[in-house]
UniProtKB/TrEMBL annotation:
Entry keyword annotation includes Membrane: no
Native source organism of the sequence: Ceratopteris richardii
InterPro entries: PPR_At4g14850-like_plant (IPR046960), PPR_rpt (IPR002885), TPR-like_helical_dom_sf (IPR011990)
Domain of life of the source: Eukaryota
Protein name listed in UniProt: Pentatricopeptide repeat-containing protein
Length: 394
C-alpha cells in the first residue's frame, strides 16, 4: 500500500500522519485495520483527536461491522470525546449504517448539546433504516427545541419519505418548500427528483427536473438514477450524454447509476466501457458498489464463471452484498454448486444475515439432499432465537 510506505518514510509521525494512514483503511472499510492503527498510534504516544476518531467510525458499515463499531465507541469514551458534537454525530451515523437503531438512539439521547447537524444525522439514520415516521416526529421535536430546520434537514426528510414510499408526506414537504421559495435550489431540487423517482412517480420526477433553473451534478445523477431504477437503461445513458454536453464531471454515484442501468438492460459491453471511462478518464476508483453492478450484470447474463473471476480479482475483500449478488445469479441459473459456495462466503462475512440461509434452504429443498435438513434446522433455530423480517421467494 503506497500510503503505508509513505508513512514509514515520515519522520516524527503525528496525529495528521497517523490519520492519513488510517484513511486508506477507512476508504476500503477495513475496520479491523483501523482499530489496529489506533492501537499502534496510542502505543507510540500519539493521542487521536476528534477528526481521527470521527473518520475511524466511517469504516464500519453493515451488521457484521457492529462489534468493531462498539469497540471504537468504547475507545471514543476512553479518549474523552463521547460528549463531543462532531464525534457524537459520527457515532450516530455509524450505528445507523450498522442497522443498530437502539444504539443510535442511546447516543442521541446522551449528547449534552444537540445542534442542527446532530438532529439532521438522527433524522437521516431513521430514514435510512425504514423509520421515516420517526424522522417526521423528530422534525416536530426540533421545533419544540427552538431549532430551525435547514436544507439538509429537508433533504434527509425527503429521503426518509422516499425510502418508505410515503408519497403524501413527501408532497406536503414539497408544498412547504414551494411556499418558502426554496424548491428550485439545486440540492433541494435533486432531493425532490430522487423522492418522486423512488416512489415510482416518473412523470413528477421529470417535471421537477425540467423546472430546475440550474441543473447540478446531483440533480442529473438523481434523474439518471430514477430512470435506472425503472429499468430504463438506454434512456439513462441518453441522459448521461446530455449531462456531458453541459460539461459536468460525473462522480462515483453517477457511475453506480450508469452501471446499474447496464445491468437492468443487459448491456455487458457498454458496462465495461463505462468502467474503463470512469477510471481512465475521470480518475474515479472502482469501489464495491461498482463491482457489485458488474457482477450482477454478468450473473444475469448467465456468465457465472466471469462473474466469479471478477470477484476473485477485486482489489479488496468482497463484502456480503457482493456474494449475495452472485448467489442470486447462481440460483437464477440453477447452479447449485456455486450457490452453496457463495452462500458460505456470504455467511463468513456476515453470519447474522438471514438471506443466505433462506436462499440455501430454497436450493436444498429443490435438490432434496440430506444436507438440506441441517440447513432447515439452522434456519428454524435462527428464526426461533432472533427477531427477523424476511420473505422466502417461491
Amino acid at each position: 500500500m503506497h500510503v503505508h510506505a509513505a508513512f514509514q518514510r515520515t519522520q516524527g509521525q503525528n496525529t495528521i500522519s497517523w490519520t492519513a494512514l488510517m484513511s486508506a483503511y477507512v476508504e476500503r472499510r477495513q475496520s479491523r485495520d483501523v482499530i489496529k492503527t489506533l492501537q499502534r498510534m496510542v502505543d507510540e504516544g500519539v493521542i487521536p483527536d476528534q477528526i481521527t476518531l470521527a473518520s475511524s467510525l466511517t469504516s464500519c458499515i453493515g451488521e457484521s461491522s457492529l462489534p468493531d463499531g462498539k469497540w471504537l465507541h468504547c475507545f471514543v469514551c476512553i479518549c474523552g470525546f463521547d460528549s463531543d458534537g462532531v464525534v457524537g454525530t459520527a457515532l450516530l451515523n455509524m450505528y445507523g449504517k450498522c442497522n443498530s437503531m437502539e444504539d443510535a438512539w442511546r447516543v442521541f439521547n446522551k449528547l449534552p448539546e444537540r445542534d442542527v447537524v446532530c438532529w439532521n444525522a438522527m433524522i437521516a439514520v431513521c430514514g435510512q433504516n425504514g423509520y421515516g415516521h420517526w424522522s417526521l416526529a423528530l422534525l416536530r421535536q426540533m421545533g419544540m427545541a427552538n431549532l430551525a430546520p435547514n436544507k439538509i434537514t429537508f433533504i434527509s426528510l425527503l429521503d426518509a419519505c422516499a425510502n418508505e414510499a410515503a408519497i403524501e408526506e413527501g408532497r406536503l414537504l414539497h408544498s412547504w418548500l414551494l411556499q418558502h421559495e426554496i424548491e428550485s435550489e439545486h440540492i433541494i431540487g435533486a432531493a425532490l427528483v430522487n423522492f418522486y423517482g423512488k416512489c415510482g412517480y416518473l412523470e413528477d420526477a421529470q417535471r421537477m427536473f425540467q423546472k430546475l433553473p440550474l441543473r447540478s451534478l446531483s440533480s442529473w445523477t438523481a434523474i439518471i438514477t430514477t430512470y435506472s431504477q425503472r429499468g430504463l437503461g438506454r434512456e439513462s445513458l441518453c441522459l448521461f450524454k446530455q449531462m456531458m454536453e453541459e460539461d459536468l464531471v460525473p462522480n462515483e454515484i453517477t457511475f453506480v447509476s450508469l452501471l446499474s442501468s447496464c445491468s437492468y438492460a443487459g448491456m455487458t459491453e457498454t458496462a465495461w466501457q463505462i468502467l474503463y471511462m470512469m477510471q481512465q478518464y475521470y480518475g474515479v476508483t472502482a469501489k464495491s458498489e461498482h463491482f457489485d453492478c458488474l457482477i450482477d450484470l454478468l450473473g444475469r447474463a448467465g456468465l457465472l464463471i466471469q462473474a466469479y473471476m471478477l470477484i476473485d480479482k477485486m482489489p479488496f475483500h468482497p463484502g456480503a452484498n457482493t456474494w449475495m449478488a452472485f448467489l442470486g445469479s447462481c440460483k437464477l441459473h440453477n447452479n447449485n454448486h456455486q450457490a452453496i459456495i457463495s452462500a458460505e462466503h456470504a455467511l463468513e462475512v456476515d453470519s447474522s444475515s438471514a438471506a443466505p440461509y433462506v436462499l440455501l434452504s430454497n436450493i436444498y429443498s429443490t435438490i432434496c439432499c440430506e444436507e438440506g435438513s441441517a440447513v432447515f434446522a439452522t434456519v428454524e433455530d435462527f428464526v426461533e432465537h432472533d427477531d427477523h423480517d424476511f420473505v422466502v421467494d417461491s
